[in-house]
Design a protein that fits this description.
The protein has 350 residues and is of the alpha/beta class. Helices cover 28% and strands 21% of the residues. The strands form 4 sheets. A 6-stranded antiparallel beta sheet has the order 13-14-15-12-9-16, with no helix packed on it.
């Protein structure tokens, strides 16, 4: 992970907000935060106060940035604990200002601006005069401004327009120099677009070893390996169904391994019949039939010495998360965050 963070820093040429929302993309929020707390990062980016609280309770003291709008009832805790919120409306700004005044504090906030994501932030039509409207809110230190790229990995033309719009917005708000932090680029953005006036990047997926741009995949280090074991070995005769619905029927005697993982662990049921493989003893082995809640069945006929207890790589260096996602008709983000709590996590190195 630290190698991937170094690449993000080199590619963006800026400071880093490490995005650790959704349990650090399923990798373990507290563990990832602790592993990276010694690195030179500006913020941990989280989705909500629950995640912020968990980082603090883990003893990590790096600044925390809340990436989206906050519920009104959560804001008093944000003020009290000094987390950095982003503002999408004057209503939020006034509420935070009042809470900070009541606490006798001045708090850091960022302005969120909507350049095309449609999920939050001030619209471009609201920006002229915005800084003047915020001027009376003396408890707010507006130290940053940010936006989000929805299509940096899919639509370069729109993204270039969006980047240009963001820089125009900075000028509308008084110039880039008015803000300590200026951030727009996510993983795809920092890998493939110039940073311009931005001085803070927000790497997410790439930290966890998957590039949203396939051409850059070889530069990243694999972070997570999802493993199980063979729990049963049997040779099924020709004409024998495998798993629910008899979606797969053997055409010859087949050595079938039952492997202890299924959709109850986060291995997608949508992989059923889609040509998915696992890695056993240095070989790819096809998944047969439907994925069940707790088990999958795998053809190991090509491994004559396969044995019960053999380790099975379900996802990792040999079976990339991006491959699993493509065959399941989804994205790597969902694969990572879908791994369920019953899967035991073990952490090694950094």
């Amino acid at each position: 992970m630290k190698k991937n963070l170094r690449l993000a820093r080199e590619a963006s040429g800026s400071e880093q907000m490490v995005v650790v929302k959704a349990g650090a993309y399923g990798h373990g929020l507290e563990e990832v935060a602790r592993a990276l707390t010694g690195q030179d990062i500006a913020f941990f980016g989280v989705a909500n106060v629950g995640e912020a609280r968990r980082i603090r309770n883990a003893g990590v003291e790096k600044p925390i940035y809340l990436l989206g709008p906050t519920w009104a009832a959560e804001r008093e805790e944000i003020v009290a604990r000094g987390w950095t919120a982003c503002l999408s409306s004057m209503e939020e700004a006034r509420h935070f200002n009042g809470l900070a005044a009541a606490a006798g504090k001045r708090i850091q906030v960022h302005l969120a601006v909507d350049t095309g994501m449609g999920r939050g932030g001030f619209l471009t039509g609201q920006l002229p005069g915005l800084m003047h409207a915020l001027e009376p809110l003396k408890q707010l230190e507006i130290e940053g401004v940010g936006s989000h790229l929805p299509s940096a990995d899919e639509d370069p033309d729109f993204t270039r327009t969006q980047v240009a719009t963001f820089h125009e917005i900075l000028e509308t708000l008084g110039g880039a120099q008015r803000f300590k932090w200026r951030h727009l680029l996510n993983s795809a953005g920092l890998l493939d677009y110039p940073r311009g006036a931005c001085n803070l990047a927000r790497p997410g997926l790439m930290l966890y070893g998957v590039s949203p741009l396939p051409a850059r995949q070889q530069q990243l280090a694999n972070v997570m390996t999802l493993k199980s074991r063979i729990t049963l070995l049997r040779t099924l005769p020709a004409g024998h169904g495998v798993s629910y619905g008899r979606q797969f029927v053997t055409t010859k005697p087949t050595c079938v391994a039952t492997v202890g993982i299924g959709y109850g662990d986060g291995y997608p049921r949508h992989l059923s019949g889609q040509g998915a493989d696992v890695w056993i003893r240095g070989q790819r082995c096809p998944v047969l039939g439907r994925v069940t809640m707790d088990q999958i069945m795998v053809d190991v006929s090509m491994i004559p010495d396969a044995a019960e207890g053999d380790e099975v790589e379900v996802m990792g260096a040999h079976i990339p998360a991006s491959e699993i996602a493509q065959k399941a008709g989804t994205i790597a983000w969902e694969i990572f965050t879908g791994i369920t709590p019953r899967v035991a996590r073990q952490y090694h190195g950094g």
